[in-house]
Amino acid sequence: MDDLTLDEAMEDLESAEDFLNFFGIAFDQKVVHVNRLHILQRFHNYIAKTGLPTADEGARRAAYAAMLARAYEDFVQSDALTEKVFKVFHMHEPQTAFVPLTSIGVSKREPAHEHGSGDCGCGGQGMCHSVEGALRS
User: Fold this and answer.
1) How far is the CA of 74 from the CAs of 35, 83, 92, in angstroms?
2) Which range scores top for mean pLDDT: 20-24, 28-32, 84-88, 94-98?
3) C-beta atoms surrounding 125 within 10 Å
4) Is residue 67 part of a domain?
């Protein structure tokens, strides 16, 4: 990988271990094993947030190494549930909904029917099971 540009070399990297080794970052395999995708996503987020470093390849390599080391350390000091890197961790958080008072209304009750009118299905037997019948009882 020595004859490749930084961008070309990074295209060949596949795992979190590959990235960490490439940038010379010491790591605990247990931390990486549990958090590999989270570390890589956080690294990507840091790059996206700060933008691409300068065109100078040495400066870019140093900046990438610092961002990857920071992403790794985030998961040494914390865990995936706390860091919430992926959208799935935000899906069950409480949501705030606004319902304007004007959209809340009271519907008018239909006038009660007479037994035997056939509207409630009791057939005029006096054993009305409709809402109105239940309210009259």
Assistant:
1) 10, 8, 22
2) 20-24
3) 8
4) yes
Spatial contact of 38 and 75, defined as CB atoms under 8 Å apart: yes
The answer as to whether 117 is a domain residue is: no
Q: What is the pLDDT of residues 26-48, one digit of tens each?
A: 998 998 888 888 888 888 888 88
| DSSP single-letter state for residue 84 | -
pTM, to two decimals: 0.56
Helix axes 29-50, 57-77, angle to 10 degrees: 130
Q: Tell me the per-residue pLDDT of 71-81, one tens digit each, with 9 for 90 and over.
A: 898 888 866 55
Query: Cα separation of 87 and 78, whole Å?
Result: 18
Distant-in-sequence, close-in-space partners of 86: CB < 8 Å, separation ≥ 6? 37, 38, 41
Question: Which run of H or E residues covers position 27?
Answer: none
Q: CA-to-CA distance for 14 and 5, rounded, in angstroms? A: 16
Residue with tokens 């060949």: 12
The total number of residues shown for the chain amounts to: 137
For the chain, the domain total comes to: 1
Residue ranges making up the domain that contains 21: 6-90
Q: 85 exposed, middle or buried (CB, 10 Å; 0-12, 13-18, 19+)? A: buried
